[in-house]
């Protein structure tokens, strides 16, 4: 371990700098620096190596998750003890350091740290891998209103039009990019995704001959599930790759009589009087200011007494609405916003829906991300060949961070079952008196 910070004016080693702001003996991670110094236990399953001064510069310029992501993607830090497809454990270790062990140095030590780091010379610029994975449209957004149809289309395309082959390796056979529902902790990912579709189908009370609209339908998993049971299902997505893949799969499975997936904004759906609507993972993309119009539009597409199943990532509290962190917003979900469950249900109710049932599937999303990380690890070489090392590392980092977030209640996943009250002020109760589906 590096020397403890002294009182002299000599430059501090990296190990000394870290030791001056954290208690190291019980550290869950060992940090080894390019100057030969270190911090943390001599023997530790997790080792973070700072291989160049650019690592520190990235942390100084962009404190928090963005600096960590930049340093990791540029290779100025390396992590031993975890696979790049699933760097989940490192987040827990770094959070322990940040929340439980870190403390502010005294003024003299802080000045020595600044001098040792050489802040006047810090200017690593934007890392090349960031330019490779950043969408070009983010450099020309001034003329696009946030959550306008054009901007939403570009944002969705950036995230989902990566490569269908890449998504097949990560998501598995179901091609389902939303939280699964595990009947038990040992269930497979495919079993859990099929069970999720079964749960949504049953909650919506669908039966042969009904009409279903699936907004933000992804690769059409819910649409095909419903169509195989005789439901006429339309799915809409803003991703060209998703729409193309989904429609081809519909034809491949002989479901064209019942199923259709369109490249279309949910705001432009011309039909109405659907028996049910499923919205699985779209609320995160529409923006807090648009919740009212979102639920209003969906209600206008439902027949009186029709049901809406809204499935989305949420915050664990309701005092604020937050945009995604700097790393997620810059690299993963541009313009994404999350809100607490009560905010979402209140907006739905203000739009004229009545809440029948809600539940939190937070542990299920942690399991889902765990299994996606395993899939990426199993196909790592193919994924790197398909999308490049920066993008493959980016997805491992993103999914590992999200898995940790769901495990530690930083984020949750809620399903709301809502009924479209009729025009007679809700006098007619059109659903069974008690829940009619199996958990």
From TrEMBL:
Pfam families found in the cross-reference section: CMAS
Record keyword Membrane present: no
Matching SUPFAM superfamilies: S-adenosyl-L-methionine-dependent methyltransferases (SSF53335)
Domain of life: Bacteria
Keywords, sorted A to Z: Lipid metabolism, Methyltransferase, S-adenosyl-L-methionine, Transferase
An example Gene Ontology biological process: methylation
Active site positions, chain numbering: 402
Gene Ontology molecular functions: methyltransferase activity
The family this protein is said to belong to: Belongs to the CFA/CMAS family.
The name this protein goes by in its record: Putative fatty acid methyltransferase
